[in-house]
Design a protein that fits this description.
263 residues, mainly beta, 3-stranded antiparallel beta sheet, 1 helix, 21 strands, Chitin-binding type-2 domain-containing protein, signal, Chitin-bd_dom, Chitin-bd_dom_sf
């Protein structure tokens, strides 16, 4: 390593240390780390943002193999001559708490995966959900399917998907509501198992699973998530098992007659 390069690195380390020691900002902000796009040294900046909360030095267009984390409550902000640490994160790094409609997988009321004060009402399968917001001080509760007063942090349930790892994640402690995480994007929709079913992870995996229905007896039973399908329960090898069957096109399952009829 050339002497001037060594001096440059020492100067950078001292500058970074001085910058971070003076930080006393303790603002708590939820970051959307998936939205961050890592930059490259362009020959003009002395620092380049390495993440939403860190930066690395550049020597011209050469990348220096060091990363400096911004102090508590500080975020990396893009600048003209150099990226710096400051109290306000870039817009791309802030996780939005606004809820957007999704395509309904079933009828009913669903929690929002990112904002515990919001919930979605689905009037029909394949239609867009309608977003509603609870009053101030209230959060949505899946047990009552309504807004309840928030008395503790535990009342506010949101979903955190692992970055870079596709998986299924349960909504809080529920075995009925779950989210499909693609490892890249922030989830926008909470799914719900049909009545009589619970989400069960595969025996060979802690990341993937499916809704497993429990038959209450022999016969046909409705799929509450899909009126055009039903469960056929029967005994096989001494135990009660089921098949999920689809009704013919243009028909729905009739709970009274226990077979598919025209709509």
């Amino acid at each position: 390593m050339q002497p001037y390069t060594l001096l440059f690195l020492i100067a950078i380390a001292l500058l970074a240390s001085a910058t971070f020691c003076h930080s006393k900002n303790t603002t708590t902000i939820t970051l959307n780390t998936r939205a961050f796009v890592k930059k490259e040294c362009d020959g003009t900046k002395t620092y380049i943002c390495d993440s939403c909360t860190s930066r690395r030095p550049c020597f011209g267009a050469e990348e220096i193999p060091m990363t400096f984390t911004c102090g508590t409550g500080l975020f990396c902000i893009e600048g003209t001559a150099s990226d710096r640490c400051g109290p306000t994160p870039s817009e791309a790094c802030v996780q939005s708490t606004e809820s957007t409609s999704f395509t309904c997988s079933a009828e009913g009321v669903f929690p929002d995966p990112n904002n515990c004060q919001n919930y979605h009402v689905c009037l029909a399968t394949s239609e867009s959900s309608t977003v509603y917001t609870c009053p101030p001080g209230y959060v949505f509760n899946i047990v009552t399917s309504s807004c309840i007063r928030q008395v503790s942090a535990a009342n506010c349930v949101t979903v955190s998907c692992p970055v870079g790892i596709p998986s299924y994640v349960l909504y809080g402690t529920s075995r009925v509501y779950y989210v499909v995480c693609d490892g890249v994007n922030i989830p926008t929709q909470v799914l719900r198992c049909p009545n009589g079913a619970v989400f069960t992870f595969f025996s060979s995996s802690t990341r993937f699973g499916e809704c497993v229905y429990t038959c209450s007896g022999q016969g046909n039973y409705p799929n509450s998530n899909n009126p055009s399908s039903y469960y056929q329960c029967y005994i096989s090898n001494g135990r009660l098992v089921y098949n999920e069957l689809d009704c013919p096109t243009g028909t729905v399952y009739n709970q009274t007659l226990r077979y598919c009829t025209r709509q």
